[in-house]
Amino acid sequence: MKPSKIEIVKFSAVMIVFLIGMVIMIIHKVQNTWIWIGYISVWWWAEVKIAKNFHLKLWVWVLILALILAIDALVILYFV
């Protein structure tokens, strides 16, 4: 089943909001492990709820994770 355009927009919006939050946390040098575990858990839970009928191939998930890691690396390199 192919996801609808609304599901794609919701998924992208949640991803962007949490990426911005992650960048802000990195810039402010949040180092508390429990805060990061909580943040990632809420992010994961929100994405699971949004993407119930959203089935992506493995290579797409790998690209998404690579993009997140690249953003992390750039933020750390230029802002921390």
Describe the protein in words.
Helices cover 79% and strands 0% of the residues. The chain is globular. It contains 3 helices and no strands. The model has no long low-confidence stretch (mean pLDDT 87). The chain is an all-alpha fold.
Alpha-carbon distance between the two ends: 42 Å
Give the percentage of residues in beta strands: under 5%
- Number of helices in the DSSP assignment: 3
Kindly state the percentage of residues in helix: over 70%
The dominant shape is globular
Structural class based on helices, strands and sheet pairing: mainly alpha
Calculate the mean pLDDT score and round it: 87
* CA radius of gyration: 14 Å
Biggest β-sheet description: none
- How many beta-strand segments? 0
> Poorly predicted ranges (pLDDT <50, ≥5 residues)?
none
Secondary-structure element sequence? Answer: HHH
Structure described in brief:
With 80 residues, this protein is an all-alpha fold. 79% of the residues lie in helices and 0% in strands.
Topology record:
Layout: H1 5-27, H2 33-50, H3 58-79
Which key features would you list for this structure?
single chain, 80 residues, mainly alpha, 3 helices, globular
